[in-house]
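Hi all, long-time lurker, first post. I run a small reading group and we've been trying to get comfortable going from sequence to structure in the token notation. Rather than ask abstract questions, I figured I'd post a concrete chain and ask someone more experienced to write out its structure so we can walk through it together at our next meeting. Sequence below, copied exactly:
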Amino acid sequence: MLRPHEVALLPDPASSARVSAVEYHGAFVLHYVTLASGRTLRSWQPHSVRHPVGTPVAVTVAPGTTPTLLLGDKAITSPPPGSSLKQRSSEPAA
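-- Answer (accepted) --
Happy to help. Here is the structure in token form:
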């Protein structure tokens, strides 16, 4: 689970995710993004970041954010001990 302020957007002509609506709220802009799956997500951006409707965008997690997986009513923020899942680094490859 990510909150709208934890979703970052970057213009990406190769992306199938598209900005489908934009709402202006003073110091912030709420972007609605339709994913290839047809699902829509929201992203709060500062007023200085505006992606017009139709813009293809890469959807990422804002720096410093740890996504939370909800399993029933339990929040999981890391793989269980002994699992074969490894956390992926957000650092670019050298």
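A couple of things your group might point at:
The chain has a mean pLDDT of 84.
The beta strands are 7-11, 18-25, 28-34, 40-46, 57-61, 69-71, 74-76.
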